[in-house]
Amino acid sequence: MRKHIAVLGSTGSVGTQTLDVVRMHADRFRVRALGCGSNIDLLEAQVREFQPKIAAVYDEAAAKDLKVRLGDTAVRVVSGMEGLIEMCASSGAELVVMANVGMIGIRPTIASIEAGCDIALANKETCVTAGHLIMPLSRRKGAKILPVDSEHSAIFQSLQGRADSRIHKILLTASGGPFRHMSAEQLKSVTAKEALAHPTWSMGPKVTIDSASMVNKGLEVIEAKWLFDVDVDQIEVVIQPQSIIHSMVEYEDGSVIAQLGVSDMRIPIQFALTFPNHIPSPAAALDFSTLKKLEFDVPRNDVFKGLPLAVSAIRTGGSMPCVFNAANEWANARFLRGGISFPEIYEIIECAMAKHRVIPDPSVEEILAIEAEVNRCCIEKYGNLS
């Protein structure tokens, strides 16, 4: 019997790679719903190939256009946030792949869990800002949260078969990005084009910039805290430049279990879709005959401040991770447009965190209001993004 899935963010990097996996295993999966922000050219092609029940577009004008284009099909086109929620919760999917970027994923994730769906989670911002809501809800509803990020998938895989063994430490690996040998002074002149040239991974622009700033690793620390129910002091970031070891778990007896593989997101995506089974993948196998060395290093937190700022945010707790995430989203977008220097990403985050008055247990409405307030403050100081 085929597993029914929905993919929110189907036109992005993780979404398109998810559909690569589906193509290879068409006998295992049935796509019930696809959704995107505004890229209806690609979404139309995906809809015609996979013939879902529902297609959702966040941009309402683009959704109207898509509805006209798909007039010769039986696919229902929905729009806006309500459309994203409907495609996740009402399509008949058993598993929803959250492949979109940003806090836009919070409400659809909650709606999917409420509907009894398992979640293949690639949208780290959702867990970072609303992990205190999502993880208890998933436990109450019996919904699995299956990590898609390569690092969290590696941790998840390294935890299989643990029985009563206790985790001593999670070793979260990072490539270090394209600038890992640069000084703080050198970072002042780097460009968005240079930041997008990641040495080992092919990812979307937002995640690639976050990787260069080490903000991405900070977000992953917060996400790991929620996904694996560990204290932040049990998470250690290790630089592994080749991106061969995707993360490790150290147990109380000193044993370290690691997951290795090529830098191909289709491997963790597929495991989330087929858990608990490993099956043939569209990705290449790791060739040990060509693997001559594995290097390790420690993060340079004095230069790449994204990681220590994230740790500070989760130690403070409450709504502070929401501020960290929202300020970074704004700064990331501004850097991509050439409006600020690379180090100003950190300055914007620090400024937003310093101004914030923490809410101990924020609701979804409060989380989204914090995002809007951070955006307003950034615009007041730095001007509009456009």
Uncertain runs: none
Major β-sheet strand ordering: 4-3-2-1-5-6-7
DSSP E strands, number = 11
Overall morphology: globular
Question: What is the CA–CA distance across the termini?
Answer: 48 Å
**What about the largest sheet?**
7 strands, parallel
The count of domains is 2
Task: Specify Rg, calculated over alpha carbons.
Answer: 20 Å
Average of pLDDT: 95
Strand content: 15-25%
> What oligomeric state do these chains adopt?
single chain
Question: From N to C, what is the helix and strand string?
Answer: EHEHEHEHEHEHEHEHHHHEEEHHHHH
Report the structural category. alpha/beta
Roughly what percent helix? 40-55%
Work out the helix count: 16
Describe the structure.
There is one protein chain. The protein is an alpha/beta fold and 386 residues long. The chain has 16 helices and eleven strands. It has helices at residues 13-24, 40-50, 60-69, 80-89, 106-114, 124-141, 150-158, 184-187, 192-195, 205-213, 215-228, 266-274, 306-316, 320-336, 344-355, 364-382; strands at 3-8, 29-36, 54-57, 76-79, 95-98, 118-121, 145-147, 167-174, 235-239, 245-251, 256-260. The strands form two sheets. Strands 4-3-2-1-5-6-7 form a seven-stranded parallel sheet, with helices on both faces. Strand 2, helix 2 and strand 3 (54-57) form a beta-alpha-beta unit. Helix 4 (80-89) runs parallel beside helix 5, helix 5 (106-114) packs parallel to helix 6 (124-141) and helix 13 (306-316) packs antiparallel against helix 14. The model has no long low-confidence stretch (mean pLDDT 95).
